[in-house]
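ok trying again, last paste got cut off:
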Amino acid sequence: MSARARLSAPKTVTRSDSKPRKVDRKSANAAPDGWELTKQQQAFIDLFSEDDSKKQ
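nice, full thing came through this time. structure:
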């Protein structure tokens, strides 16, 4: 006979403010001022700021 551990369902965390957040994609993907990035590194970061609908 095998013993089974009783597992509880994962708890869902809800926020008290259910308002959707607006995120400025440009500032969210910008590197800190102290960083010196190459053009290749900056281009890589900029890929994440492009709108997904443009890629399709």
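cool. The helical segments are 25-28, 39-47, 52-55. The two ends are 54 Å apart (CA to CA).
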